[in-house]
């Protein structure tokens, strides 16, 4: 994909390749307004960081000018994807996003990255109500040894377990966004009904 500009010390890790059991099809190739989610998320987050796509299986990709790497471990969930993404390249700061977020916001991503630079923590994660969003969050490369230790020595591969093992800072408000707008930016699609809802939101905005 052309036109993806990046800050040299930052990367964008796009996670895809989950089983998508609830959706029934690979969410990365679902279409929103004629655009596949893979391209849509990369486009919306253009400029956030040097992009890399991480998957856990052999996938036939469309022609995108973005590096693609595979998980080093199977059946370890998104934590293995984050490990693969952080291991690729030398960038210190990584913004992680799941491929099923049709309204992924570059403004929110930049805000979270700015918080990371100020707080000097291991991760910055948005939280709305009691729900954390670790798959639309910022992580520092220094957590790699911790991630690898969890993947190789423990049985709990959940993102919430990772956040308990590192210094994570939670953000509940984003400057310039209402709670409704932030909720939409963090919306992810798990079921066919979510896909229909995303299309309905787009239609209502026209």
Automatic annotation (TrEMBL):
GO MF terms held by the record: GTP binding; metal ion binding; molybdenum cofactor guanylyltransferase activity
EC numbers: 2.7.7.77
A UniProt-annotated Pfam family: NTP_transf_3
Alphabetical list of CDD domains matching this protein: MobA
Keywords assigned by UniProt, alphabetized: Cytoplasm, GTP-binding, Magnesium, Metal-binding, Molybdenum cofactor biosynthesis, Nucleotide-binding, Transferase
Catalysis: reaction(s): Mo-molybdopterin + GTP + H(+) = Mo-molybdopterin guanine dinucleotide + diphosphate
Entry superkingdom: Bacteria
Record-linked InterPro entries: MobA-like_NTP_Trfase, Molybde_CF_guanTrfase, Nucleotide-diphossugar_trans
Domain notes: The N-terminal domain determines nucleotide recognition and specific binding, while the C-terminal domain determines the specific binding to the target protein.
Protein name: Probable molybdenum cofactor guanylyltransferase
Organism: Marininema halotolerans
Encoding gene per record: mobA
């Amino acid at each position: 994909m052309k036109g993806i500009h990046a800050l040299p010390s930052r990367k964008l890790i796009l996670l895809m390749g989950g089983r998508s059991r609830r959706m029934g099809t690979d969410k990365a190739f679902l279409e929103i307004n004629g655009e596949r989610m893979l391209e849509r998320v990369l486009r919306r987050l253009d400029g956030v960081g040097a992009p890399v796509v991480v998957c856990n299986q052999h996938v036939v990709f469309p022609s995108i000018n973005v590096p693609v790497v595979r998980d080093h471990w199977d059946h370890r969930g998104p934590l293995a994807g984050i490990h693969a993404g952080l291991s690729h390249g030398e960038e210190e700061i990584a913004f992680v996003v799941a491929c099923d977020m049709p309204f992924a916001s570059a403004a929110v991503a930049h805000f979270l990255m700015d918080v990371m630079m100020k707080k000097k923590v291991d991760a910055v994660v948005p939280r709305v109500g009691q729900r954390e969003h670790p798959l639309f969050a910022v992580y520092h490369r220094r957590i790699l040894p911790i991630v690898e230790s969890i993947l190789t020595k423990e049985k709990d591969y959940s993102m919430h377990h990772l956040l308990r093992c590192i210094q994570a800072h939670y953000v509940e408000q984003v400057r310039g966004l209402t709670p409704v707008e932030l909720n939409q930016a963090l919306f992810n699609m798990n079921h066919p009904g979510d896909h229909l809802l995303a299309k309905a939101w787009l239609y209502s905005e026209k």
